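Dear Dr. H.,

I hope your travels went smoothly. While you were away I took the liberty of generating a structure for the chain from your last submission, since the lab meeting agenda had it listed for discussion. I wanted you to have the full record in hand beforehand rather than looking at slides cold. The sequence, exactly as received, is reproduced here:
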Amino acid sequence: MPNINVNGTTLFYSDDGPKDAPVLVLSHSLFFDHKMFAHQIEHLSKTIRIISYDDRDQGQSARSELTSVDMDTHTSDAIALIEALELGPCFFAGNSMGGFIALRLAARRPDLLKGCIVLGSSGELEYKLADFSPLVEGLSAQGTEPFIDTLMYIMFGDDYLADNSRESERKYWRDHMLKLGTDIARSADGVIHRTGVLEELQGCKVPMLVLAGEQDHAYEVPLSENITKTVANGQMFVIPKAGHSIALEQPEIVNRYIADFISSHSL
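The corresponding predicted structure, in token form, is as follows:
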């Protein structure tokens, strides 16, 4: 799996699927890496070329000197990645933080997109800032270990957390989060202090698929509804028994929606 130097950083990415197929770029959530889309890569790459990457300061991508990794920087990285790999116009999907990036791409560089897929995200200012600010401060000082149960609750829905058949997967992501250092707080700070993007999206014509988790503890269903009401060509679905990490928690349903969306907008 290669690295690429773009926008003053080095991003790690994978390239799966037929090279002459429609292209889907996947952008992960905070506290995760590109592997959160393992289910999508395994299933969809049979007929879709999938580029999944780790955001700067996360996963296997380069660390930066930024005190807060803001969404505009992440968006510029995504634009540079798409342009450097000559992927546009492509489909772009993002879960949570990746959704913030996807929305900014749709608003600012619609020429690069055939369609935008937003999962468990928001186009607004952080409405839980009072709750999340102390958590980010704690992460900066102590790392993730003292807050791991809180992070698991935020990132996953009740059904997923209680499902014994998913225990090994949950353990993988719990261990992944436990290994994150204090520098993850820089990315978390950028997430919770992001600017709103709904005004930029007013009337946006990029086809948009918005998926909301029924049990999302971070960004509830009305925030997804607000995105759909703002853009000119959006459709929204609520995914049952899914929390914040929709693509990971309910992969079969998500894969079907994504495949149908790409098939409908590939021409």
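Two observations you may find useful: The chain has one domain: 3-265. Residues 3-265 form a domain with the Rossmann fold fold (CATH 3.40.50.1820).

With kind regards,
E. W.
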